[in-house]
Amino acid sequence: MQRSKSMKILVDYKNTLIVFLIMAFIMLLYVGFVHHLDTRVYQPIGTISSEAADKAKWEAIIIGLPYILLALIGYILTPLFLLLAICFRKHRAARITLITLAIIFAEIISFSHLGDMWNHRVFRNAFSGVTVRSESLISAIEAYKESKGVYPDNLRSLVPDFISEIPNTGLAGYPEFEYSKADANSLFKKYELLIQTPSGGLNWDVFVYRPEGNYPHYFYGGSPELIGKWAYVHE
């Protein structure tokens, strides 16, 4: 009797299991593709052109946006479909359909988090590398201050006496350091190095270094994530 009941459940949800496996395969490919596009901007300068990196920023957003929206909607629809499945427990076809839909949206949510985990790991490694590559530039700025008594007005003032050339960030998508010297209106005390790190025109993240540290809990329109002595501001 117990075996017969188990077989009945297996037959009832056979199609649901098939849908689950197909969707898992599709989601894995989809997340992998978006992750590939999204992380091309972190590739070393010279491996791809700046135009290709800019294109990748837009493609990652355009292709990934529907997936992100579905994941957000899934937080509402997954419990709703499960609740409706309970309400329609006497209607076999409706119950199976609702459970299948709940599983699909639960998969989308799960793979969305998986993609975020993949990307964040690559992201932190990439920007940790930037903090190391910036050390020669920061040392040159401090050497200028020790020699002249003031910080430079711009990075060009460092060449050639304090550094042979202005280094790049090493990232194809975000190649340049921007420098600002503190003035009476500055929210920082000495100077600031900044890297613009937008993504597809839908956010305006920045990566910031201030020698005094003590980054605010909220600035540049977002909250900072510390990476070494730098702060990545998620807008």
Give the secondary structure arrangement, pairings included.
Layout lengths: L1 H11 L1 H26 L10 H38 L4 H42 L1 H14 L29 E4 L9 E6 L9 E4 L13 E5 L2 E5 L1
Short description:
The chain is of the alpha+beta class and 235 residues long. The protein has helices spanning 2-12, 14-39, 50-87, 92-133, 135-148; strands at residues 178-181, 191-196, 206-209, 223-227, 230-234.
Q: What would you note in describing this structure?
A:
With 235 residues, the protein is α+β, with helices and mostly antiparallel strands. The chain has two domains: 2-131, no CATH class; 133-234, no CATH class. Helix content is 56%, strand content 10%. The chain has five helices and five strands, in the order αααααβββββ. A five-stranded antiparallel sheet has the order 1-2-3-5-4. The chain is elongated, with a radius of gyration of 25 Å. 22% of the residues are buried. The mean pLDDT is 90.
Features:
2 domains, five-stranded antiparallel beta sheet, 235 residues, alpha+beta, 5 helices
Number of domains: 2
Structural class: alpha+beta
Tell me the major beta sheet. Answer: 5 strands, antiparallel
What is the approximate shape? elongated
Question: Nearest-angstrom radius of gyration?
Answer: 25 Å
Strand order of the largest sheet: 1-2-3-5-4
Uncertain runs are none
**Beta-strand share of residues:** 5-15%
Distance between the termini: 59 Å
> What is the oligomer described by this structure?
single chain
Helices, by number, come to 5
Total number of strands: 5
